[in-house]
Design goal:
Length: about 130
């Protein structure tokens, strides 16, 4: 690493939290919603809705060429708290909870989600403290 060149861990974290985490979470939540029953399905649907709203907030204003006004400000308020970590963590909570309630199906969804969440939190912790 040289002067003004970010470390690979920082670049991996920014890529994961900006471009990969919410779409992968949406895919896992859609799998849970389609396979589960009862409360687990509703929690999977809530996680899917939060992931889709997060992707719309992150990619929508630039896609629509909106850079001023209330919509980009609202999108920034949704995507930037806690260094961009709040949105992925909030969207993960319902999917994490859906693994512990009745009606759960496809245990691999839980394992894939835990691995994805562990990678995100591990990279975040590494970049925060090292």
């Amino acid at each position: 690493m040289t002067f003004l060149q970010p470390s690979p861990a920082v670049m991996a974290l920014l890529s994961l939290q900006t471009f990969l985490y919410l779409p992968l979470l949406a895919i896992l939540a859609a799998c849970r919603t389609g396979a589960a029953r009862g409360p687990s399905r509703w929690l999977g649907l809530a996680s899917l809705a939060l992931a889709l709203m997060g992707m719309a907030a992150h990619f929508g204003p630039p896609l629509l060429n909106l850079y001023t006004g209330p919509l980009p400000r609202l999108a920034t308020l949704m995507t930037k708290p806690a260094g961009g970590m709040m949105l992925p963590l909030i969207a993960s909570v319902p999917l994490l909870a859906s693994g512990f309630v009745a009606g759960r199906a496809w245990k691999w969804v839980d394992w894939a989600h835990v691995v994805l969440l562990a990678v995100l939190l591990g990279l975040w912790g590494y970049t925060r403290f090292y």
